[in-house]
């Protein structure tokens, strides 16, 4: 597995950024497998999104396909409007990041 895939998986704690489903690190790109996932571009490359880690997210296949080329914020808003409990990422404060907490 590439280093980048591992970074994205760890960044999202092995869960889909959109629905919170548990993902399997072994099943990246294996559609139909339990815990299958893909790397999603929060801002799509079509909309000038980059491959920088801060623009990448782990997403289950269903969410990534449904999201399509929309940006992550718009997709999350649609999910919330349908009553889906979208997980939130808590940002660490400056001191926590500095100390590696």
UniProtKB/TrEMBL annotation:
Leader peptide range in chain numbering: none
CDD domains cross-referenced by the UniProt entry: HNHc
Gene3D superfamilies per the UniProt record, alphabetical: 1.10.30.50
Domain of life: Bacteria
Molecular functions per Gene Ontology: endonuclease activity
Keyword Nucleotidyltransferase: no
UniProt entry keywords in alphabetical sequence: Endonuclease, Hydrolase, Nuclease
Residues covered by the HNH nuclease domain: 3-65
Protein name: HNH endonuclease signature motif containing protein
Organism classification: Bacteria, Pseudomonadati, Myxococcota, Myxococcia, Myxococcales
């Amino acid at each position: 597995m590439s280093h980048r895939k591992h970074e994205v998986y760890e960044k999202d704690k092995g869960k889909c950024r959109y629905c919170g489903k548990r993902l399997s690190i072994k099943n990246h790109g294996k559609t139909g497998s339990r815990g299958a996932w893909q790397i999603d571009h929060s801002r799509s490359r079509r909309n000038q999104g980059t491959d920088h880690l801060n623009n990448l997210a782990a997403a289950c296949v269903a969410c990534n396909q449904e999201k399509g080329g929309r940006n992550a914020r718009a997709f999350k808003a649609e999910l919330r409007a349908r009553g889906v409990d979208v997980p939130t990422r808590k940002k660490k404060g400056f001191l926590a990041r500095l100390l590696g907490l």
